[in-house]
Design brief:
Strand content: 15-25%
Number of domains: 1
Oligomer: single chain
CATH architecture: 3-Layer(aba) Sandwich
CATH topology: Rossmann fold
Organism: Fusibacter paucivorans
Order of helices and strands: HEHEHEEHEHEE
Radius of gyration: 15 Å
Shape: globular
Largest sheet: 7 strands, mixed
Protein name: Class I SAM-dependent methyltransferase
Keywords: Methyltransferase, Transferase
Number of strands: 7
GO molecular function, one term: methyltransferase activity
Distance between the termini: 30 Å
CATH class: Alpha Beta
Amino acid sequence: MKTFGNVVNVFRVLVKGHLSSGMTVLDATSGNGHDTLFLLDLVGENGFVYAFDYQSTAIEATATRCMHNGVLPTNLKLICDSHANLDQYIESETLDAAVFNLGYLPGGDKAITTKVESTAAAIEKALMALKSGGLLYILCYAGHPSGVEEYRYLQLKLSALPQRTFDVMTVDFINQAGKPPVMWVIEKK
C-alpha cells in the first residue's frame, strides 16, 4: 500500500499506528463498511466498534461486508441513526478513536450527503466522547456543495479548538488536480 496518493491511504497509516487490540472506536459514517471492517481488524476480538449511518442501505452494506469477512456481531454495533445522536449510544470519554469519512455513500444517491448541521453536532459530541490521548479523524470532500459547506465550517471550528485541550493537524494534498479531500486529525490531550 502506498503511504501517500490520497488521504484515505494516509488515514490508514495513521490509524494503524494508533489503534490496537481492545480499543473502542466510532465509525461515524459507515458507508459501505470498508472503514468499519478496517477498524474491526485493528481492535480485534477484544475491541469494539460503533458504526453509524443514517441510510439503511449503508448499514445493510456494512453488515454484509462484515459478515462476508467473518466478523462476529459481538464487537460491532451497527446504528441506523444520524451521527449527531451518537451521545445516545456512547458515553463521554470512552472512545480511543473516532472516524468521520464525510460526503455521500459511494455508489449511492449523490444528492444524499452528510450535512454541516449534523456533522457539527456529531464532531462536538465525538470530541467529548474521546479519552485523553484519543484521536479524531475527519475526511472531508469539498468537491460537492455540501462538502464545501462542511469544509468551511470545519476549517474555522477546528482551528479555534483550544490548544491546551486539543492538537489539530491538517493533511492536504496541495498538488493534486481538482478538489482533493482534506483530512484533519485531532488529538485530545
